[in-house]
Amino acid sequence: MPAFGIRIVDENTGQGIPMVALETLHSVVYHTDNSGYIAFYEPGLMKQKLYAQLSSAGYRYTQDQFGKQGVVLDLAGGRDTILSMTRTNLAERLCRLTGTGKYVHQRALGLKVPQASAAPKGGILGQDSNLAAKYKGKVLWIWGDSFLPQSYYGNFSVSGAWSSLPSTDSWSAKEGINYQYIVNSKGQSRPMIKLKQQGYVWFDWLMNISDERLGEQLVAKYARVDAFFGNYERGLALFDDEADTFKKYKEVSTWLPEGHECIHPFLVRQDETEPYYYLASELAMSRISSSLDAVVRPERYEQFSCLLPATKSENGEKVERDEIGQPIYKWRRNTKALNYRGESDLVEKGLLAQSEKLLHTRDVWSGEPIDVGRGSVSWNAYRKRWIMIGGKQDIWYGEADTPVGPWIYLQKVASHNQFFYNPVHHAFLDEERGSRIYFEGTFTKFFSQEPPIPRYDYNQLQYGLSLDHPDLILPVPVYVSESQREKRFSLRKGTLENSASIQEIPFFALDRKIGKDATIAVISSADGSGKLVARSENTADALFYGIKPACAYTDLWQGNWDMDIAFRSFDNSVSLALKSDDGSWYLTASKEGYQFDGLQIDGDSLSVELLHEETKYTLIGKLGPGTIKGRFGKGDELFQGKWTAMKKGGKTAEWICFSSGLVPLYEYNKNGVYHYSTQYSDGGRMICKVWENPSSVINYDFGAVPVE
To answer: What pLDDT, on a 0 to 100 scale, did the predictor assign at position 486?
Structure first.
């Protein structure tokens, strides 16, 4: 009997979803392939109906009568089935890039697979952490450790592959990448660098450098490490075109104390100088002139830091400050760039105040501090800002006006139950003028309690992200500069040529309208008084957009919700419909046995009576971004239990009024001179809400211009 075909797709795009688990009641688990297919065949279960549950991080299936993401498959019907899931991630999981069996179920069903999916040479089972660089009209892809079928120790001296550029061969990364692996005579992935002594070999980064003498050169920073990842050797290697491999160029002992990194350099120009390569290590930024003579010299690297260069006579770290005591962040040599943990360490030592940190990365919804970790930074022509993809397990998106920041408000774009690390956005894969980007990362059970997922474990997953999505419109800095007797508010557009006149960054706001009725445009009065005027309609001359003082709660409450309530009943999950009509609220359940009465909604608070299985409960709840969290009780046990509800469709731009960090912006008028502050004092009039700026830093890298 042939296998029963199941395809699981994204309800919005119709695209198959990779890595969705379908599990039977006796724990038989199938996972969808790259096209979202499952070829289901279990002797003894065919020719009947079968209940199974679906699960996938970042996706949700319709809740059934048991409160599960369950489905009844008609295996006796003889017809394949298509199931749709709702994406709760902003990013769309597209495909597994590496490893075998990418379309294993699609092939088993006898269906045609994408042309680029033909099993490539190399015999790769799993690959760790990707680097890539454009080189002589093509792309060289590099991975760390690679698992091969023949031995536990596969290729642990860097694997490589070539591909064309999308711009030259008109292909899209949404279906994967047609890697042409660099192999040995047996067709197996071979080491991309051979060093004489033992040890694993990893690359920290790749740079394409134009050398006056040697021409276009591909340079790699390498590390040869022991079993505990300590360094035996560090240095630079150059790519040999004829041998299709890297060869050791120079050993650099100064780099021996460094740990392994996964960095994606990008080119930046300052004024009329030669371009620099910027290196973002967990948002700690260094740079080096893009010449072979420079990159091999550790003393030539500069760090964007407030720490004074180290001297032999000094012990410990010392922060450079200006005449009013503010730390001076600038490019300097012989010091260190600080990541999130490094800055926090200076705060603990009393060398920096919390507000003096450069990095204040936080979740735009909850305000929770985020140590982003590894990722990539690149210029995006669509957003006209520097964008960041970073994280581990949870993946975050952020924007900044300069490569070094301010990086503050971030949006989560992908979540994983297992570890997902070293994410990278390759800008040369961007589409639609930069509004569509792709990022990948290593997915693995390592550092996770979850069981491994066959074929997906220790491989690269690819995601797509549309930057025109309203939920990716994030708060941006509002700058204040002095002009005669008035202060001028502005957003950065392009480069800030007058950055020296910036006095402060008092708050963050939006650069465009979002949602149906959430934002308010703020313009400058035409009379030259410096007065800010708030308008409800969209306008081309807006300085920025704030959030209306009051939430439009009615629109947020209305809709369909999936509810879970923790009372002693097998029947504790139900779908709800909540709507308002002529000032009255109505709450109905999707199944019998749930009767609601006395519904009251006041702002973000709810109360209602529930009759269930002849027992009457009182429920209270609080509205949050896409959720209701509440308590319930009966009689003397009032409000001892918990219940939650999730709005179908999740939180969207309309929920922006729940964003953490929102504070009132007050207007003060003293003798015709207008002043604005997020701090309240007598006489203040709120004109809108904006986002607080937790940082007092104003000297960012405003002269940085991308080399595209």
So the answer is: 62
